[in-house]
Amino acid sequence: MTEKSDTSTGTGRNDPFWNSVASFGLDDIFVLPEWISELKGVKTTSVAVEESGSISLELTALTQRVGDCRGCRLCEERNTIVFGGGNPSAGIVFIGEGPGANEDIQGVPFVGRAGKLLDRILAAINLDRDSAFITNIVKCRPPGNRTPSKDEVAACWWILEEQIRIMQPGVIVALGAPASRAITGSSEGIGKLRGRIHRYGDIPVIPTYHPAALLRTDALRRPVWNDMKMLRQLLDELGLPRTGKE
Fold first, then answer.
1. What's the pLDDT tens digit per position in 55-91?
2. Closest of 93, 144, 112 to residue 212, by C-alpha
3. Confidence of residue 105 (pLDDT cuts 50, 70, 90)
4. Is the Cα dihedral 203, 204, 208, 212 positive or negative?
5. Which CATH entry fits the domain spanning 48-238: 3.30.565.10, 3.40.470.10, 3.40.50.960, 3.90.1150.10?
6. Disulfide engineering: 92 pairs with which of 52, 65, 132, 152, CB 3.0-4.6 Å?
7. Residue 220 and residue 223: Cα distance in Å, rounded?
8. Distance of alpha carbon 221 from its chain centroid, rounded?
């Protein structure tokens, strides 16, 4: 059924959960009643981690190794290398395609319209940027926000590999076709990759559509919502996110 956001009193939707779900779908969103009841009752299960600066220290050392990277043509027009942001100890990593114009200026991933929508998606499953780490397969903005080429992805790949090795996440969410193909090693389209769990080594990988695609195509909202339900179930099984932020 189609539900529309309504924050007026007496609707039963004047609560943070519904506002998150409604804003996820912009003007409206397809939501089944059982999804609302299921997710409203979800409580984040966490496991404690030792207080240690090792992950942050290793990531800092990695950025120093990268330095003023000149490994591919993307360095020619970039303003900032965007390594990522969020909680590297949480055990959840979202990986997108590449920085956009706003990200290139601010040095933070997903801060434009797609980033705001990603925040709403995270909120709908009881996550935020303090309970996940967000990065991209390439760390410099492709001109005109085009899809990064294979050689650009290859040149930047070692950085992402090192980030994953250092953070040792319990789950990876690949946002969009380029990230999903790079992480899974598959040549299939995102429509075929999504909807099931893949693997990066021993790490579960959930491919889904990029938030920018949802801004263009309303019909993608339902499959993304289903993917987020699958993610929420997996996080509960794995006891993620881990508590504590370095």
1. 999 999 999 999 999 999 999 999 999 999 999 999 9
2. 112
3. very high
4. negative
5. 3.40.470.10
6. 132
7. 6
8. 15
